[in-house]
């Protein structure tokens, strides 16, 4: 054996081990960590979203996993989920647990702004990108924090754009002269009411005759409906969370009240829930933002709304999951999965800032069932703005409520029917 | 008397502080460690008022929230450094305690429920939309405060040492003994001419201040929050459950309560997330039914028997 | 608007008096702060949901059936938990933890079995449309719930003041030790009171799907908070006071909603504190005693 042979052998050994090292670099699984509220006040919004994530991960794993560009192969997903019980303090702990103990590659927040708030600083401090699903509070986004992207909902200050524009540009044309505002004084709903109020300030021909904020746990709207009737508004705009909407529609129902123009925050977004509570009739001829739960956006990736609804309901039935309704939150969970999946297909590595860069390459190019995905430079969502729809009574022989889009002009399919018959 | 103070401090407080100080090297979920200290302070703070005067404030979280918002508002509206803002948090809670002092006229469950109503009222005022310009209202707050995990953890331990030092001192001092006598038998204590009212007010204010200080530290470590988060009723419930379970009026009881129950809480939360609430609820019920006097009393009984 | 606020406040308050009544009875007899009260109510709401919405059982039978069912459920719960609890040194305070645990268990089981989404029952299930009183439109379910509440108050009053068992119950409420010495079987009387408390919560729960817009497994804690306010304003351990507490709570709430709606949640809390500062044991409380 001479030196050359030895050198060759050493080189070979080095090459082999280097090759082995490279193969070992690709992880056996991509760890996706998330929180959900299995109980407490947030459970009814959080659970459907989490179920959708499980559906998404399962679908990918059946196909061999998610394609990760950095390793140029498919890798199975491991979904690690903890129950935060609707407690922000616990959510902070568990987010830290996901980062420091489970060492997840992808970190998702629980739904709603209140719960997401607990994860935002933790993710930032650990330089982990937070995949924020529905936490849309403007408080979370600032130019100096690159560790957050908002996936499934336009930021709260942009979301009400359509209704605000409609108020300014269309309401006077319809002959609406007075408006009543009723809103829940929580982050998300109060922002929307503020946007509408500002639009009304710029519209001197419309008077605000009633403007009331109510606490979020308001479960009975009878007095408010009565007092609004007394103010005789041409149009009523109501912003609440799903439980508030149910209470509001029930008060309309129980007092036989009707308004000439009624806008509700969740009339379309959570229509299935409203139907299953037997309040669909109250929605006839009312207006709502046609969020992804009811409006069929053109998609260039993933299932469209209709296909997803079928798949989701099949998943819920076949897994015997009780008390979960298809609606906006289910879509949001699936949307989060889609964006993550596309980002991994683009990212050169699992480095957190590289993942952020990858998510930004999708901005403006990805159209899903949530609408066009557009990120603002601070990571907040500025696409996914829903058009304004008017809900119509079911056509003869059908049980499904009808829908026409009335604003913005380029998407409109019909003129608003005003006053409602 | 002095001997007892030194012995308890050496046997309970010192080892606890050493363990807490070493933990960050052994376990790197710093936020969990911080939360353990937060609950230790809340449990010992509650122990101050319940253990020495018999008042059980269900609304104890009100002081915690007052501290968190005292801290937040100081940073939002002044150029004060965070450390000063923590002190302001403590002062805010102290003031809230003074305002609520008339509630000490009430007894038993009346007092507990009135303090709960007070905490809820404070939350509704802070979360009120008309005060958004000042408090952030329903939109919550975001603080631009530097992330200093070592400092906040150290501060929390410092506050814990103060509170536990006070508990240990009260257990041995004549002042504390008088209070406890009044707690166990208000009639005879009152006739003995002891200024019970004054003493109760002092522990009440100390208890409020402790919750306020730790609330401020909590806000520092989780600087984006909504009013719901820092006025979350589960802070009160947990502090009460931990204290009563461990044994009120003792120094070691609340520590045992937090370590065992909060420990179990986090272990179950991570290992069986789906059955989290169920298992934890069953655990709490079983403990009350089978160890109704708290674990600390069990230890004391053993020692007496042996 | 003022008249409407007063009228709906009174009716709403009557219902909330029913919500608090069971909690107060249990506290009065056993000195137990029942944090699982709201969860019993939630179970009643689920029962009503299945009976009335799914099985189309009539409202009257649902109310009676729920009452009987939960009375029977309450008895074994009493014997499993309370006697053991009362052997401890501070049962009143420990009851808080024990029933907090029970409330967690109930909520967890219901969530696991039935899920968390909002459920309700259409108002027409009760029959009847909006009712006009003094020219004011009141929802029919409110009238129904208020009438049932009145019937139940009358029933509880008759039970407490005109039956032997009821007199024994009041004897225990007034002086537990003396009741024991004169030979009253405290456990039997208490078990019945606990069963009644559970049944009253469940019957209040039958109307929750109508009065609260919708319900979920996690409505327990908010219900407990309201019950506390109603019960404490009227006096702990005094079932008659609960009606007064309910009325005050309801009227205050509706007035606030009418004139200062963003502060609607603040007022009941301030009223509670205000009442206690003037009368430390509630409006109908007796002289200071150790509650």
Please, could you describe this protein's structure?
The complex is a heterotrimer of chains A (421), B (306) and C (291). Chain A has helices spanning 3-25, 43-62, 88-100, 113-125, 161-169, 171-174, 187-201, 222-231, 242-254, 271-276, 305-318, 328-346, 352-362; strands spanning 30-36, 66-68, 73-75, 77-83, 106-108, 130-132, 148-150, 178-184, 207-214, 235-239, 261-264, 287-289, 366-368, 371-373, 388-392, 402-407. Chain A is an alpha/beta fold and 421 residues long. Chain A has two domains: 27-155 and 296-373, Response regulator (Rossmann fold); 161-294 and 386-407, 3-Layer(aba) Sandwich (Rossmann fold), CATH 3.40.50.2300. Chain A has a five-stranded parallel beta sheet, sandwiched between helices. In chain A, a hairpin with a 4-residue loop joins β2 (66-68) and β3. In chain A, α3 runs parallel beside α4 and α5 (161-169) packs parallel to α7. Residues 18-23 of chain A have low confidence and may be disordered. Chain B has 306 residues and is an all-alpha fold. Chain B has one domain. Chain B has 15 helices and two strands. The longest helix of chain B has 26 residues, at 196-221. The two termini of chain B are 24 Å apart. Chain C is an all-alpha fold and 291 residues long. Chain C has one domain. The longest helix of chain C has 29 residues, at 2-30. Chains B and C meet through α5, α12 and α14 of B and α3, α4, α9 and α11 of C.
Rounded average pLDDT of chain B: 89
Largest interface: B-C, 43 and 50 residues
Amino- and carboxy-terminal Cα gap of chain A: 99 Å
User: Which CATH class of the largest domain in chain A is shown?
Assistant: Alpha Beta
Over the alpha carbons, how many angstroms does the gyration radius of chain A reach?
24 Å
* Helix coverage percent of chain A: 40-55%
Question: Percentage of helical residues of chain B?
Answer: over 70%
Specify the biggest β-sheet of chain B.
Answer: 2 strands, antiparallel
Q: What is the CATH homology-level superfamily of the largest domain in chain A?
A: Response regulator
Q: Topology as H/E string of chain B?
A: HHHHHHEHHHHEHHHHH
């Amino acid at each position: 054996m001479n030196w050359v042979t030895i050198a060759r052998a050493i080189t070979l050994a080095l090459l082999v081990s280097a090759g082995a090292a490279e193969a070992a670099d690709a992880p056996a699984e991509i760890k996706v960590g998330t929180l959900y509220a299995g109980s407490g006040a947030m459970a009814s919004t959080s659970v459907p979203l989490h179920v959708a994530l499980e559906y998404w991960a399962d679908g990918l794993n059946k196909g061999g996993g998610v394609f990760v560009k950095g390793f140029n192969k498919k890798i199975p997903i491991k979904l690690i989920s903890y129950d935060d019980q609707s407690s922000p303090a616990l959510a902070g702990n568990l987010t830290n647990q996901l980062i420091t103990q489970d060492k997840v590659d992808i970190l998702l927040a629980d739904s709603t702004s209140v719960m997401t708030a607990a994860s935002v600083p933790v993710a930032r401090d650990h330089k982990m990108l937070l995949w924020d699903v529905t936490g849309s509070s403007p408080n979370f986004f600032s130019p100096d924090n690159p560790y957050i992207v908002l996936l499934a909902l336009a930021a709260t200050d942009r979301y009400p754009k359509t209704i605000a524009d409609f108020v300014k540009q269309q309401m006077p044309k319809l002959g609406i002269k007075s408006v009543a505002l009723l809103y829940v004084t929580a982050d998300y709903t109060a922002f929307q009411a503020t946007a509408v109020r500002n639009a009304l300030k710029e519209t001197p021909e419309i008077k605000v005759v009633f403007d009331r904020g109510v606490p979020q746990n308001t479960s009975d709207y009878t007095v408010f409906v009565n007092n609004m009737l007394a103010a005789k508004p041409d149009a009523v705009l109501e912003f609440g969370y799903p439980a508030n909407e149910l209470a509001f529609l029930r008060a309309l129902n129980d007092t036989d009240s009707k308004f000439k123009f009624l806008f509700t925050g969740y009339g379309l977004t959570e229509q299935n829930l409203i139907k299953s509570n037997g309040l669909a009739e109250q929605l006839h001829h009312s207006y709502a933002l046609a969020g992804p739960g009811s409006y069929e956006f053109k998609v260039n990736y993933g299932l469209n709304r209709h296909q997803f609804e079928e798949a989701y309901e099949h998943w819920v039935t076949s897994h015997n999951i009780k008390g979960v309704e298809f609606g906006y939150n289910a879509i949001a969970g699936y949307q989060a999965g889609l964006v993550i999946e596309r980002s991994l297909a683009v990212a050169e590595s699992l480095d957190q800032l590289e993942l952020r860069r990858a998510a930004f390459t999708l901005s403006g190019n990805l159209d899903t069932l949530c609408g066009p995905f557009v990120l603002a430079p601070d990571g907040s969502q500025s696409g996914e703005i829903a058009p304004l729809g008017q809900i119509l009574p079911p056509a003869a022989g059908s049980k499904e409520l009808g829908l026409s889009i009335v604003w913005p002009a380029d998407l409109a399919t019909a003129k608003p029917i005003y006053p409602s018959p | 008397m002095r001997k007892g103070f030194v012995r308890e401090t050496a046997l309970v407080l010192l080892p606890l502080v050493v363990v807490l100080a070493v933990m960050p090297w052994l376990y790197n979920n710093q936020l969990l460690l911080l939360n353990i200290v937060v609950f230790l302070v809340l449990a010992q703070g509650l122990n101050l008022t319940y253990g020495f005067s018999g008042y059980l404030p269900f609304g104890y979280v009100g002081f915690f929230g007052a501290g968190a918002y005292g801290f937040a508002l100081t940073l939002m509206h002044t150029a004060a450094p965070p450390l000063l803002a923590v002190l302001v948090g403590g002062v805010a809670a102290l003031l809230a305690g003074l305002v609520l002092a008339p509630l000490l006229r009430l007894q038993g469950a009346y007092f507990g429920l009135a303090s709960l109503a007070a905490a809820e009222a404070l939350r509704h005022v802070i979360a009120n939309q008309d005060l958004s310009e000042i408090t952030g209202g329903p939109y919550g707050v975001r603080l631009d405060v530097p992330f200093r995990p070592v400092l906040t953890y150290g501060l929390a331990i410092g506050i814990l040492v103060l509170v536990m030092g006070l508990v240990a001192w009260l257990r041995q001092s004549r002042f504390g003994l008088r209070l406890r006598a009044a707690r166990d038998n208000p009639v005879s204590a009152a006739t003995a001419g002891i200024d019970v009212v004054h003493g109760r007010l002092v522990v009440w204010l100390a208890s409020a201040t402790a919750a306020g200080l730790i609330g401020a530290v909590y806000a520092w470590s989780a600087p984006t929050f909504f009013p719901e988060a820092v006025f979350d009723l589960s802070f009160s419930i947990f502090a009460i459950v931990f204290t009563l379970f461990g044994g009120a009026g003792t120094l070691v009881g609340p520590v045992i309560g937090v370590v065992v129950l909060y420990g179990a809480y986090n272990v179950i939360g991570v290992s069986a997330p789906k059955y989290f609430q169920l298992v934890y609820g069953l655990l709490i019920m079983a403990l009350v039914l089978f160890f109704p006097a708290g674990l600390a009393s069990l230890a004391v009984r053993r020692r007496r028997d042996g | 608007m003022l008249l409407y606020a007063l009228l709906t406040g009174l009716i709403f308050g009557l219902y909330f008096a029913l919500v608090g009544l069971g909690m107060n009875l249990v506290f009065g007899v056993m000195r137990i702060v029942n944090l699982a009260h709201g969860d019993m109510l939630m179970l009643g709401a689920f029962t009503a949901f299945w009976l009335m919405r799914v099985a189309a059982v009539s409202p009257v039978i649902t109310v009676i059936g729920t009452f009987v069912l939960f009375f029977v459920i309450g008895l074994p719960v009493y014997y499993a938990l309370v006697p053991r609890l009362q052997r401890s040194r501070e049962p009143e305070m420990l009851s808080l933890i024990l029933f907090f645990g029970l409330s967690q268990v109930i909520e967890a089981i219901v969530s696991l079995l039935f899920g968390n989404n909002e459920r309700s029952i259409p108002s027409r299930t009760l029959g009847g449309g909006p009712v006009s009183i003094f020219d004011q439109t009141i929802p029919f379910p409110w009238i129904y719930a208020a009438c049932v509440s009145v019937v139940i108050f009358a029933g509880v009053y008759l039970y407490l003041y005109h039956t032997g068992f009821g007199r024994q119950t009041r004897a225990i409420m007034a002086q537990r030790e003396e009741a024991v010495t004169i030979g009253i079987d405290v456990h039997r009387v208490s078990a019945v009171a606990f069963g009644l408390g559970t049944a009253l919560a469940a019957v209040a729960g039958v109307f929750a799907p109508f009065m609260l817009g919708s319900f979920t497994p996690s409505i327990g804690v908010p219900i407990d908070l309201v019950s506390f306010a109603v019960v404490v304003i009227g006096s702990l351990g005094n079932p008659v006071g609960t009606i007064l507490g309910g009325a005050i709570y309801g009227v205050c709430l509706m007035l606030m909603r009418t004139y200062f709606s963003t502060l609607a949640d603040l007022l009941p809390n301030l009223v509670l504190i205000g009442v206690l500062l003037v009368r430390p044991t509630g409006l109908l409380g007796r002289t200071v005693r150790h509650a």
